[in-house]
Amino acid sequence: MTKKIKAANWIQSLKRLSIGIILIFTLLLISQKYSYRWDLTAEKRFTLTKASYHLLKNLKQETLISVYLEGDDLPAGIKNIRNHTQYLLQDMQKASNGKLTFNFININSIKNAGEKESLQKNLIQKGVLPVNLEVNSESGYSEKLIYPGAIITSGNKSLGFTILENQTIFGTQEALENSLNFLEYKIVNTISKLQQEHVPTIAYLQGHGEVSPIQVSSFNESLSKQNFQIKKVEIGIDPLLDGKTDVLIVAKPTKRFSEEDKFIIDQYVMRGGKILWLLDQIIADIDSFQLVPSIFSIPRENNLDDLLFKYGARINDNLVLDLYCAPIPIVEQIAGNPVPKLYPWVFYPIVRGEQKHPIVKNLDPVLLKFPSSIDTIRSEDIKKTILLSSSNYSKTQKTPFQISLEGAKQKPQPALFNNKDIPMAILLEGKFKSFYARRAEQSQKDLIQKENQAILNAPEQSSKMIIVGDGDVIVNEIDPNGRPLPLGYYRFSRETYANKDFLLNAIEYLIDQDGLIEARNRDISIRLLDKGKIQDQKSLWQFLTVIAPIPILLIMGIILNLRRRKKYTR
Questions:
Q1: pLDDT at residue 252, as a whole number
Q2: What pLDDT is attached to residue 120?
Q3: d(Cα 164, Cα 145) in Å, to the nearest integer?
């Protein structure tokens, strides 16, 4: 009887084993064809945004991503970014159904000097600049030159981008986190530009004393590297309503706008045109101090107030002064010799953005020069977002107002700078109402007929515009040899501010139709090990991870063995 029971138990066990093996093989076969991964991270770092997934799923061409963030002795933070890049690209490759491929290249492993130099020049030309890292090893610190970026190639076109964010303002830790936060957006945005059939066109408005080409050459170079087409538009001469201008830039006009010019701009907005307004509301220029010791800042009459008011904003006739500001040099006589000394210049505020919006999220500070504050006006169907605002120690100064260079030497009184968050750049979105609805004059009708267009009294579609109360935000400085400096570089303090990034993000947001820029809203935190604790608690953790598990396993084995004996011994 006992033998029959044992045989029946053996057969039953064999059946269970067979069923288990069959289930395991079935699951393996299913997993090879259908795979799914649960993203249990708090910030959903391994989940693509809907816009990114849609773009990758509908790739038109084979796309190759070459990543140059590779090496054996990279610091922990850089290696973390490298690994995250690989995981992200694996997800993107899967979403693209294999149309996207990638590889990692260690530029320092290339032995051929000519090949290496050629690759380095190509990377720099594509906007991937080298970074000199300090690598910590057991023998001490050593320097290592890396190119922390990638080149994306699709068809016969290629574009590059930098993975590692600037560390100058934020510091190493926050820069590494920002690198992770922006990585998905940089990749999909670059792919989108390579895949698109229509190259976005950025037009500079001319005819009103706007900035000269050399003053915006740095920003134009950045636009060109990002695959934008650049042109100039003068109302009455060049067409603006033909649908071939994606964004119109009005950069620091100094002359009055005629009603005919405003009418064409209004009709451009009615057709869904996007505008980046960069306006100096006050006449004030630091170069004027080379001739006189003081200047009067007075309002500039550009005849745009009524048009902007209709759209939902007003640039005030004032100046924003901020204790968080850039310095200017003032020459002093020391031992009979003229010596320049830097003093804080409250008329040059260094401003930050509303961090929740993708245009300014985790953006370095932006330098403004003699900016004016902006008020939002109640307007139906228009969404208003403040992008740049002053610090907690700021104030506004009404104009006309006399500005003295010697005033910079006087220590400002913090009690007078008791305002905060004064808006200086805003975003307007929605269906804008026409300022000229049903009241166009004959001269304005003639301009419309010249462009072979019909007058629109109501908007055809929604539009966007960004208004900045400073025209110098787009102006790059010129060195003594007449060569343009990078946009955002301030030669007196030798610091680089995020003017270029702010304007590029603004252009991207105005053009973006697929919502790709929402990927900039990611919040990914790097959880690095504390090196100090590693050294102090090294022995403890070695004991807990290597020695402690052995007696625990022995005790568990003895307990299980005793239970088996008690259960099966008769």
A1: 96
A2: 87
A3: 13
Among 162, 194, 226, where does a domain finish?
Answer: 194
Q: Where are the alpha helices (DSSP H) in 354-454?
A: 442-450
Residue that has been written with the tokens 């020049």 in this structure: 121
Residue 448 and residue 455 in contact, taking contact as beta carbons nearer than 8 Å = yes
**Per the structure block, which two tokens stand in for 155?**
């068809």
Q: Which tokens in the block code for residue 70?
A: 């590779």
Q: Give pLDDT, residue 352.
A: 86
Q: How many C-alpha atoms does 280 have within 13 Å on its Cβ side? A: 25
> What pLDDT score was predicted for residue 146?
82
**CATH code of the domain in which 158 resides:** 3.40.30
Average pLDDT over residues 112-119: 88
Give the mean pLDDT of the chain.
85
Do 157 and 246 reside in the same domain of the chain?
Answer: no
User: Which of 178-187, 235-244, 507-516 has the largest mean confidence?
Assistant: 235-244
Looking at 164, 194, 224, which one is the last position of a domain?
194
CB atoms within 10 A of CB 500: 22
The tokens for 220 are 């134009």
Look at the chain and report how many structural domains it folds into. Answer: 2
Residue 156 lies in domain: 50-194
Asked, for residue 155, whether it belongs to a domain, the answer is yes
Confidence of residue 112 (pLDDT cuts 50, 70, 90): confident
Rounded Cα–Cα distance for residues 67 and 69 (Å): 6
User: Where does 60-130 have alpha helices with state H?
Assistant: 76-95, 113-125
What's the pLDDT tens digit per position in 499-525? 999 999 999 999 987 677 776 666 555
CA–chain centroid gap for 568, Å, is: 68
**Distance (Å, whole) CA 417 – CA 409:** 17
- Residue 390 within any structural domain of the chain: yes
- For residue 557, is it within any domain? no
**CA distances from residue 97 to 51, 54, 65, 151 in whole angstroms, order as listed:** 16, 12, 15, 21
Tokens of 42: 């708090």
